[in-house]
Amino acid sequence: MGDAMARYNNRIAPRFIVLSKPYLVSNEKWFARGLITLLVMLLLANTAASVLLNQQTGEFSSALAARDSDRYWQSIYYTFGLLVVAVPIYGFYYYVRDSSCPFSADFFEDCWQVELLEL
Predict the structure, then answer these.
(1) Where are the alpha helices (DSSP H) in 1-68?
(2) 5 falls in which pLDDT band (50, 70, 90)?
(3) Extended beta strands in 1-119, E state
(4) Pairing with 59, which of 8, 28, 43, 71 sits 20 to 30 Å away (CA)?
């Protein structure tokens, strides 16, 4: 936790609120709220998939160390199933995340440029 926690800035949450408030209360507030909800759900799914794939990596190692062929192949098949689900989640998450950033930046630049400069 050392260096990363030492650099945590307590001003992040208030800055996020100041930056996002105009967007979240504008005419496009339902789109913005839906996008945030979608991003959070995709982030949680992305994290869950990463955890499950990491667990399977450990299972591979354990099965190989135990010389248990059935357990190894069962883990391989399970991992292929996870990849079938995880790859589209990863792709959709990064697509939504990256495609929403320019739209939000344009909105802030056009409507709230003065307020952003004060931060």
Answers:
(1) 2-6, 12-24, 29-65
(2) low
(3) none
(4) 43
Q: Please, are residues 96 and 35 in contact by the beta-carbon 8 Å criterion? A: yes
What ranges do the domains of the chain cover?
A: 10-118
Identify the three-state secondary structure at position 26: coil
pLDDT per residue as tens digits for the range 42-97: 999 999 999 999 999 999 899 999 999 999 999 999 999 999 999 999 999 888 87
Which residues, other chains included, contact 12 with Cβ-Cβ below 8 Å and sequence gap of 6+? none
Separation of alpha carbons 35 and 22, rounded Å: 15
**Side-chain-side CA neighbours of residue 60 (13 Å):** 11
Give the Cα separation of 75 and 24 in Å (integer). 44
